[in-house]
Amino acid sequence: MNPIRISVFNLVGSGFCVEAKDGDAVFISISKVLQQEQSVEISFQNVEMLTSAFLNTAIGQLYRDFSEEKIRALVKVVDMADADIALLRRVIETAKLYYKDPSWLEESVKLIMGEDE
Amino acid sequence: MINVLNNIHSSSADYAQIAALYDKNKDKFFEKIPVQLSQWFDANMAAPLGAVLDLLEDNLNDIAFEHIDNNIKTILQKNGFLKHFGFAHQPDSYCTTIQYQKMKPDDGRYFYGYVTDQFLNRSELPNMSEWLRKKMIEAMLELFVNAQIHSETKHIYTCGQFFPKRYTIEFCIVDTGIGFKRKIIRRFNKNISAVEAIRWAVKDRNTTKVGVSGGIGLALLGEFVRLNNGKLQIISYDGFYQYDSSGEQVETLAKGFPGTIVNVVFRTDDTNNYSLVSESNKTDLF
Fold first, then answer.
1. Which domains, ranges and CATH numbers included, belong to chain B?
2. CA dist., res. B168 & res. B175, Å (int)
3. Does A50 touch chain B (CB under 8 A)?
């Protein structure tokens, strides 16, 4: 079966994919497809500007609800500029670490306050 | 007694002057608050001043600019700041201003229009690579979204200035929200100082969001500024943080600013095209 294609531009309604709440709409669409065990192709065609905040909710959140194996097997990103892929990679690496152990953030606060010294 | 802001550039002492003006008047209601601007006033500093004056106006005080030196008046009329306080707008014949704007946090689309007008659709802008221009705009969008998500502010204030001879663009974004310190105290129940809170927030992957990963925006901005030889300043409550080519500098201000200021200086003569993240590999993304 062909993958389901999701147009980010169409879902957001603009080439400025900036706000976290707009990313949520993309996340919900991808989640629906993954829940059906279908593969999904996320197209960034005509997207002009991206922020990490948008990608955190659009894609990063997937690692909270789905296994890395499943995401790797079923999700594909297309029509994305190289610089944006680099940003997405960073968002993904951050999400993997965060959902593995969110408690490390508290440790980082202690570290800044010198409590661990 | 008149509130004098004298020789305002963008140093910690100058942010402290604006914070002190707020602190001195914050408990006043239904009063006239006279203000004087003397000697010099960096155009980008209109954003923190506007934020503070708005808070004082919320208490139904009357802000009265009793004296503004002519050189300051001209620039603040050109960038649209004084329009908010009963002065006429003046055209910017040199086209070096980045207009003063006050917007609601949910005005995302309005903000995109603003940055597009100020940074994309302007032929008089310094000759920058397309890559640099895109990165600068993305940095501004990240800052706007940060304020939108985290600050709980009523309004977001922005302003800036081009300095063609210095090959720099200065851009300032301000909120009157909760600030880094209180946000971290609320999230982690740790009695952190404002300076520590800023130092924590600029580190990669540190976020106060619950259930969603993040903390990349400010870290990316810091990396971009470092590579670009620019400058990043963050003031949140009484914490002052600065990063530039001479390194990191932190300070505690005498009085707290009622919100957060992020002021960035970008160099426009930067011809590099550095990747801020590891080399892209399209095949092994997930």
1. 3-267 (3.30.565.10)
2. 24
3. yes
